[in-house]
Write a structure and sequence with these properties.
- This is Polyphosphate:nucleotide phosphotransferase, PPK2 family.
- It holds the Pfam family PPK2.
- One of its GO terms (molecular function) is phosphotransferase activity, phosphate group as acceptor.
- The chain has 335 residues and is of the alpha/beta class.
- The chain is built from 15 helices and five strands.
- It has one domain: Rossmann fold (3-Layer(aba) Sandwich).
Length: 335
């Protein structure tokens, strides 16, 4: 039976809301333990689904609905320091991430096993955002319990000379996930729309036609079994300024700072306008955009974790059956 989402907390004290959130997390934790101890495939999968539903019940409105881009939404109007849909605080959010990341690891193993057996199911996660929006932290925190086998991470910078000799999707296609794998793109083919527009490096006719090319490309991926999650981490200028100053102040973080970050910051409004049109033109039913407030790191990580885990559950995968005669295998092992 589907879990009923927690109330938003209207008319309740913060203490009552946190108690209810922690009760749901306690239930999810117990289901996760039982799933690990279960013997049968059906039992384990049923408990995994239950634990995922309990985790989802923490949200007053599923992130897939709350932060999905809808016609009429304006990027500049979205509060970057908000936590829409999550009724509790950082401590509960971090606990949610810890539990959810473990379940993500379980589902990743399941998808990988199916990929080995010929399934085309795979997942592409696209992370975009202004500098210092936390794209790298998303990867480290959400996948920290995952098996490196089955995860492919790639960051896209300015195209190399070789890449410029090909069409703009050439370098993207080379990094797509294999069957059963998860690929995480830190920046993506959308840079080939944004950058030419903001800096005027290519005629408008060139970058503008890429909207339709990208939509066709992502449609073909989804049709072939590749789920696509597109996330834009939105921060405000004051938050970015603080992050940049942290990098300048801390000798261990100075390697992250580049003067080009300041060039982009000076064109902030141009970037916001460019991304607004990207969302309007490429947020589709098969590959929607999710605009995630990211001033509070724990919140953005919780949202991405929820989006990822629920995407896995909708795949309805089961563990592949043994591909040989079990009795014969056991007989050979007894020799």
């Amino acid at each position: 039976m589907p879990m009923i989402p927690l109330d938003s907390g209207d008319g309740q004290s913060d203490k009552d809301v946190r108690r209810r959130v922690n009760a749901a997390l306690d239930g999810a934790g117990r289901a996760i333990e039982r799933a690990s101890d279960g013997t049968g495939v059906a039992e384990r999968l049923a408990l995994a689904v239950k634990s995922s539903e309990l985790l989802s019940s923490v949200w007053t409105l599923p992130p897939a609905q709350r932060v999905m881009f809808h016609p009429g939404d304006r990027l500049v109007d979205i509060p970057a320091d908000g936590t829409p849909g999550f009724p509790a605080g950082k401590a509960e959010g971090q606990r949610f991430i810890d539990l959810s990341s473990g379940e993500i690891s379980r589902f990743m193993g399941l998808m990988y096993a199916n990929g080995v057996r010929g399934s085309h199911r795979r997942l592409l996660i696209i992370l975009q955002g202004m500098d210092a929006s936390g794209k790298g932290g998303i990867v480290r925190h959400i996948f920290r319990q995952g098996d490196p086998m089955g995860i492919h991470y790639h960051g896209f910078g300015a195209p190399s000379e070789e890449e410029l000799r090909h069409d703009f999707l050439w370098r993207i296609k080379r990094e797509l996930p294999r069957d059963g794998w998860v690929a995480v793109f830190d920046r993506s083919h959308y840079e080939d729309i944004i950058m030419p527009r903001v800096y005027g490096t290519q005629p408008e006719s060139v970058w503008r036609e890429r909207y339709d090319i990208v939509n066709d490309f992502e449609r073909s991926l989804v049709a072939d079994g590749c789920s696509v999650i597109k996330i834009f981490l939105t921060i405000n200028r004051d938050f970015q300024k603080g992050r940049f100053l942290d990098r300048l102040d801390d000798p261990t973080k100075r390697w992250k700072f580049d003067v080009s970050d300041l060039d982009a910051r000076e064109r902030w409004d141009d970037y916001m306008q460019a991304w607004q049109e990207v969302f309007e033109r490429t947020s589709t039913s098969f590959a929607p955009w999710y605009i995630v407030p990211a001033n509070k790191r724990w919140y953005s990580r919780a949202v991405v974790s929820e989006l990822l885990r629920t995407t896995f559950t909708t795949m309805n995968l089961t563990w592949p059956a043994l591909s040989c005669d079990e009795d014969e295998a056991r007989a050979r092992l007894s020799l």
